[in-house]
Amino acid sequence: MTSDSIHEFRAATPASVIDDLHARLANIRWPDEIPDTDWAYGTDLGYLRSLCESWQTFDWSAVEDRFNLWPQITTEIDGQQVHAIHARSPEPDAMPLVITHGWPGSVVEFLEIIDPLRDPRAHGGDLVDAFHVIVPSIPGYGWSGPTHERGWDVRRVAEAWAVLMDRLGYDRYGAQGGDWGSMISAQLGVVDPDHVAGVHINMVLGLPDDKPLSEAEQADMAASGAFLSEGSAYQQIQGKNPQTLGYGLTDSPVGLAGWIVEKFHHWTHHPDGDLETAVTRDQILANLTMYWVTGTINSSTRLYYESQKAGRFPPFDRVEVPTGIAYFPGEIVTMPESWARNLYNVTHVSRFDRGGHFAAMEEPDLLIDDVRAFFRTLR
After folding, report:
1. What are the E-state strand segments in the chain?
2. pLDDT tens for residues 171-181?
3. Which of 60, 137, 235, 276 is placed for a possible disulfide with 83 were both Cys, Cβ 3.0 to 4.6 Å?
4. Which residues are tagged catalytic?
């Protein structure tokens, strides 16, 4: 058997892993909290208590069943196991599309968009918009398992995706992503431009210039600056001392939940202040459980360390392949369109009045329509 072999995969978590999770959730040692501080100091105690109570009865096997509706594979690339959903379209002329998640997300982010992209006719769409959908787990995340050596930064992941798409038999394909997925997709356009038809991203970076900013752009930059100064402490510890953080998050489900749920609360778009207006409790728990049962929270944070050390957080070469960008109002960093054009060959721009950092979870219909519209110009 060669290292480039492709193996079938089915999600099936041992019952002992779930039993252990439940036992830990039943014996949480809770911290104190100053009354009436809500989320000001971090994850709200009352919300997290309620979430962990729900986690004890959460049906992870039903989530696995949803994934197992689609073919999944594992293969070894550059010494690392890579897991991917490979949901081929029933339409023979469908365009291959590789979709990449971020942190603290996972392939769980895409449960609501895979089938509409794969089979648009079954979801009220047009057959000409069909995609063969490939959704890999980033090395160090989920069913790809932990990384085992240094150097897995965003460029190396992109190079692995180029190998994956070739191994699956695709000569021309598109790429889509948010968060790390936006950077990996952009890097993929850089490292494999002969095969990448276009890149669609929903977290937009850019290179500054001297052009005056509109009032709206000034407001966006102010919000982005506030995030970088007040909301990016996680980047510092994950980029510098991830192993130290990993002990607590790997051993304690409430520690894991507290660390991740804060990001979902702050990064989603919910003007009413209720996180579950943006994403459902089951979506949150499915994502948490993915990290827990695969034991990959520690290795997932290393992507920050490796990418910062490589100088690719986020700088990379200009993306010359056609690029579509989607602006959602709850995004953590929003850079002006002119700055984006300095970094990408922008051929498509959309702006939405709802949705945040986890667009595929929060507003799947908006994201699906925009992905279809962009790639329709490249078929």
Report:
1. 6-9, 72-77, 80-87, 95-100, 131-136, 173-177, 196-201, 319-327, 344-351
2. 999 999 999 99
3. 137
4. 179, 304, 357
